[in-house]
Amino acid sequence: MMLLWLILIPFLGGCLAWAFRGRHADASRWVSIAALSLDLPVLALATRAPSGAWLDRLNLPWIPQLGINFELGLDGLSLLLVLLTLLLGIVAVIISWSEITERTGFFHFNLMMSLTGTIAVFLALDLFLFFFAWEVMLVPMYFLIALWGHERRIYAAIKFFHFTQGSGLLMLVAILALAFVHQAKTGVFTFDYFALLGTPMSRATEFWIMLGFFIAFAVKLAAVPFHSWLPDAHTEAPTAGSVILAGVLLKTGAYGLLRFAVPLFPQAAMAFAPTAMLLGVIAIIYGALLAFGQADFKRLVAYSSVSHLGFVLLGIYAWNTLALQGVVVQMLAHGISTGALFILAGALQERLHTRNFAQLGGLWASLPRLSSWGLFFAIASLGLPGLGNFIGEFLVLLGTFQKHPVFAVVGAFGTVTAAAYALLLVQRAFHGTPRKVEVPDLRARHIAVMAGLAVAIIWLGITPQPVVDTAAPSLAALQASAATPGPGAK
Amino acid sequence: MFFLVLVPLLPLLGSALLTLSEGRLAPRLVAFVGVGSVGLSALVATLIAIAFLTGPDQHLTITLWQWIRIGSFAPTVSLYLDPLSLVMMLIVTIIGSLILLYAVDFMAGDEGYSRFFAYMDLFVAAMLLLVLAGDLLALYVGWEGVGLCSYLLIGFWYQDPANGLAARKAFIVTRVGDTGFILGLLLLFTQLHTLQIQPLLAQAQTSWAVSSLPATLAAALVLTGAVGKSAQVPLQTWLPDAMAGPTPVSALIHAATMVTAGVYLIARTHTLFTLAPAVLAAVGVIGTITLLISAFAALNQTDIKRILAYSTVSQIGYMFLALGLGAWGAAIFHLMVHAFFKALLFLAAGAITMRLHHEHNIFRMGGLARRLPLAFWSFLIGSASLAALPLITAGFYSKDAILAAAWAPGGAARLLWLGGIVTAFVTALYIFRAVFVVFFGTAKTEPSGRYSWRVAVPLTLLSVLALGGGLVETPPVLGDITLFSRLLAPVFPTAPPPAPVMLILFTAVISLLGLGLAYTLYWRIGPRFAAWANAPPITAFRTFFAEGWAFDALYHQLVVAPFLALVSANHADIIDRFYTGIAWTCRWLHRRLGAQQTGQIRWYASWIAAGSVVTIAVAVLR
Amino acid sequence: MMTVPLQHALYLAIVLFALGVTGVLVRRNLLFILMSIEIMLNAAGLAFITAAARWGQADGQVMFLFVLSLAAAEVSVGLALIIRIRHRLTTLDADAANLMHG
To answer: In CA terms, which of A216, B92, B248, B322 is 20 to 30 Å from B84?
Structure first.
């Protein structure tokens, strides 16, 4: 039952936050924080009785006529991602405290709905429920961008919506196709994940359905060539929106690939792996090149996400334990470091009303705290050993090297280009000819958030073992289900 | 022995304390924390050294924690102490604390005083992790950590964009090498299933044949990392620009310690290189090419720090030369002696510039011998050691060991020896050129201010080391002291044969000849020579040499310009054009079809009627 | 008693319907358009009754009653709309009412 509460609490919190609209702006913020914080002990409670790879399961009938169940499951992988969602959610509420002053109730409602959807995505084990949660996650995000975004928010919001909706539709088609194929083979019409695992089908069918899933998740993961919604959406979204988008929503794509696209279609996925890895490598280099050329703080960080998620794609399709562990660490580390950079961009925007490098630079003298945090997270982002991102990238490269050395070699050069754009960011925003600005430096609220994220990324860098141990059983189970042909073990 | 942890930990804590204080500590307190943490670390290191040398162990490992464990991939964070890392640890902590003490005065009054010491302490911690790490992945943490600190400190005066550029250049160029290194790590782990240095080397020896492909590839990749970090050809271009940092930084990072990390890495993994003779030969060749071209570059610099920078590149070339010949001990010996005299030279140069309003051009100095005696004597001693003046300097003994090693095998190695001996001559020439131009003749800038003990003590101590530091290892004819090679014997069991007497004499004469030529050209016939050297055909060559043999221009054409062109051509993301193309097509179709929507009811009715007629006709006539 | 042949009645319905369509298409006055629509409806109704007579079933007549009631409703709504348009546009010209153009 804990899993249900895990979803219900942020949902109810969001509704309550909306109810407090108008005069009680702070109330909706506190309610949101309270709901997300309350979810943390619930998450801890949900891990009490593990069985196999699963820490907790829940299966309620929903639309039995169509074989649709309200089926949730929590394993190590989902646990880590839900944890990331909750923490970044709290961070998002805190940092929009002074930024969002209009329609705060509705803002927090949308934020919480999006988070609810994300948590449900990470828990859903029924493909129909998964699709439902997928949509729940997107629509509020559209409103976040369109209502509280920056200058070109409408363009960005519509672009975001078209990409994700189009890909979602493709996924729906693929889900239905899979369900029908399963029905034709076994006579049972179901959307149950475990039942659909190992559905026997012809080579071509498997490939096309797999491709539908792959494209849907690749769009979400912003893999080249489906990435072009990301820079616009990230740049125009309000800070909280950027943090959630980059920190959590992108990870749903990777999660989908890990949970569905590979285990459901093992043969097709493995045949497709070289292509996917090639796309990953291209994303690493291409994203870095584009990041280097941007004149907008947030756009640079957005393209750097494309590059970082290239490592994720590369690691997923290398599909061995090392690479998959790397993927998990990279997802967490990217969520933290990129989230932090977006927060700093938001802080700059709030103070100087610009994100353009032509109007930034030389801020160290006036804003030493903001600048030093910027330096720290830029360095985390370029993958300095000792910080989380390095562990992720190294493990992915190590796993890839054992499978396809060539991709690892090209991917490794991504660390050079990452250095180029990350240091350029530092130079163009913080270093250079001093610029006198009469604005306050970071305040306690932001400092606390930054310090928390910094501790997290250092912790991830020097003792990643708890994360590795948490993810290990579920990754092993995923690998096992992809390796055994025939109906997967329940 | 668990106190070994304190050695890197103390500077790290110092750095953390300074960072977290956000520059609110009083300068005296900052200096106390900044220097004290490294000084204490040096003290602990010395005590550990005494305990280690008197103890029975030849090496010891302290495992701090299991870093990651995924199947067989289980790197640990561990410290490994053996004579090699012991020597490195002592160099880093002792020279580090001397330079930091000096920096207390050098950086006085700088607005980033606290930031400076925070970065420096972090550097020392990272460097100590690098030399003490028992695992290649942990070593890589230190390796990148020192690179980061190098970046931060080169760009320390961030107000000038040129410094930022130099800093980024340093980081990115070394990262190109590091990419090779990391690929080497991937290959080593994939093949040998461990990254723990000692088991890895043992494993390599048992499972790889000499000159086998994986061995060669792995050694070549490790070499790439070393070449980048140690500023060897073809990745040497970043070091001269790195002089944009404060002088203590140049002394510590870009002379004494970090840039020699490549030498340390190769010495540390020398077993791997003995399995790959081709790569080992490449090490020697790279070293020789580097030492030659950078010596000529040093001869044509006007900035005192750039002279020293090229000199550093050149001297590390000697170390690579020694490594390439398998004379591991000689390389480390020269590494140590070089750390003494090059730190001394940089600090002396800093002592000059801090009194001359940060004037760096040697031709605007002059006549400083009597005005700045302390700086003069220190610089002179450093130069003598660098030029390897016979008997009295440490540099003589260490360089002699390398040249002897190059002479011994005969054959093609004699070419390397020839490169070394030519460079020995040029070295004496370029450094005494600086001495004569800077300290003699008429004064062009008047010094101001005075030195405190914090400047005098490091200079004096380093002077003593630069002169006497070589007496730990001398050739048979000159006392036959073998302290250093006996110390390193557990790590490097085989040592090259000692030098014949004639060779020692020849080397000594060569360096004296260089000194003599410098005296003639830059002092006796100074103005006439200057007029000749500044004539057009000569200046063209000199500019070419001065710009480091135009490597920068070459890389600009080959790498930087295409990269920037690609970036600027695609900064709007060509793939996005595809999607905006779809949107454009939709809008175009919308306009076309929208035109049919006239709003006139009769128009619609006509279409309905026509449609019905066609439908019925099709249905009936089909 | 002489019965009108089936074909004749259907021909009449077709002619009436064609007249109605033509009226809708060529007339610009909204009132006339409405009247033309009525003619079309009646043409359809005639066809229903003819068919009912031919097969001896009541269904056609039932349908015609439907058509009648529908026509009445349609006329009332249509006339109301026409009055509104007359108010808004001060004309009954159908071509002037093109505010919904694309």
So the answer is: B248
